[in-house]
TrEMBL record:
Keyword match Protein biosynthesis: no
Name of protein: Dihydrodipicolinate synthase/N-acetylneuraminate lyase
Pfam families referenced in this protein's UniProt entry, alphabetically: DHDPS (PF00701)
Organism encoding this protein: Escherichia coli DORA_A_5_14_21
Gene Ontology terms, MF aspect: lyase activity
Organism lineage: Bacteria, Pseudomonadati, Pseudomonadota, Gammaproteobacteria, Enterobacterales
UniProt KW keywords: Lyase
Amino acid sequence: MKSRYITPVVTIFDEQGRIDPEQNTQVYDFIKNHVSGFVVMGSTGEFFSLNMENARQMIKTCSEFSR
């Protein structure tokens, strides 16, 4: 039975400070069997430093993973 937890996830950036979709997907994959969902940009603090384009990219990356 899948647990009923929704967890905040960190945002992984590359060496140039850009969001790294591949690494973020690996984080989602690592914890997917232990949670019911993810909170992207919710409480780990980095959402303050993201512009709208990066925020959309994070939402898209997580949404595509969840399908």
